[in-house]
C-alpha cells in the first residue's frame, strides 16, 4: 500500500509514433493506469509528429 494522496497533479508529456493526436495517446495509455486512483485529462488537441531519427517530438496545431 503506497498510501493515498489527494489534490496532487502531475503534467506528463508522452508521445507515441502510432498516434497522430493527443487524444489518441491518452486513449492508448488509459488501459495501463490504475483508474481507481488516477484520473487522466487530455490538455491538448493538436497534432503530434514523432521523429525517431532525431529523437524529437513536435507538437503543433490547435490546443485549447
UniProtKB/TrEMBL annotation:
The active site is at 22 (proton acceptor). Keywords: Differentiation, Sexual differentiation. InterPro entries: Janus (IPR007702), Janus_sf (IPR038596). GO terms for molecular function: protein histidine phosphatase activity. GO terms for biological process: cell differentiation; sex differentiation. Pfam families: Ocnus (PF05005). JanA and janB regulate somatic sex differentiation. PANTHER family: BCDNA.GH02250-RELATED, JANUS-A/JANUS-B. This is Uncharacterized protein. It comes from Rotaria magnacalcarata.
Amino acid at each position: 500500500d503506497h498510501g493515498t494522496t489527494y489534490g496532487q497533479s502531475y503534467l506528463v508529456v508522452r508521445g507515441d509514433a502510432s498516434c497522430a493526436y493527443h487524444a489518441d495517446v491518452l486513449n492508448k495509455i488509459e488501459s495501463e493506469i490504475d483508474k481507481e486512483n488516477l484520473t487522466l485529462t487530455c490538455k491538448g488537441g493538436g497534432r503530434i509528429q514523432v521523429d525517431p531519427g532525431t529523437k524529437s517530438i513536435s507538437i503543433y496545431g490547435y490546443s485549447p
